[in-house]
């Protein structure tokens, strides 16, 4: 097999560019679906923000659903179960970031109580789960 207009050079290497392209597409698909798996377990209407920041790399996800009940990894939990969940993560990673999600229909005080509960149990870093929406009014 000759290339370059018949100059006599034979292709001896494998072109890996298509393989890298496919792997990058698969990585993007995995990252997009991973956010829906974590967040989509509980039917929650999150507040909207004009700019949603990057997601957390931490698996510590707690929230308050529309009924005011605590949720841990998308499942309803008691206050004691929530505290135990937080303490387990702090024991394995003291710098863990907590992603707090609160249904926009729930009282602000309930979400603040959850944040305070996390702080009292050693969480130092927080992120708020929001959905990207239209620009907020100024």
What report would you give on this structure?
Helices cover 36% and strands 17% of the residues. It has 138 residues and is of the alpha/beta class. Strand 5, helix 3 (108-120) and strand 6 form a beta-alpha-beta unit. The longest helix is centred in the first third of the chain and has 23 residues, at 17-39. It is elongated and about 75 Å long. It starts with 16 loop residues before the first helix and ends in a 6-residue tail after the last strand.
Write the layout of secondary structure elements.
Layout: H1 17-39, E1 48-49, E2 61-64, E3 70-72, E4 75-77, H2 79-92, E5 97-102, H3 108-120, E6 125-128, E7 131-132
Parallel strand pairs: 1-7, 2-5, 5-6
Antiparallel strand pairs: 2-3, 3-4
The structure class reads: alpha/beta
Can you summarize the main beta sheet? Answer: 5 strands, mixed
Helix content: 25-40%
Oligomer: single chain
Radius of gyration: 23 Å
- Uncertain ranges: none
Beta fraction of the residues?
15-25%
* Number of separate strands: 7
Nearest-integer average pLDDT: 78
What is the rounded distance between the termini? 67 Å
What general outline do the C-alpha atoms trace? elongated
User: How many distinct helices?
Assistant: 3
**Widest sheet, order of strands:** 4-3-2-5-6
CATH class categorisation of the domain at 45-132: Alpha Beta
SSE series: HEEEEHEHEE
CATH topology of the domain at 45-132: Nucleotidyltransferase, domain 5
Tell me what the CATH architecture of the domain at 45-132 is.
Answer: 2-Layer Sandwich
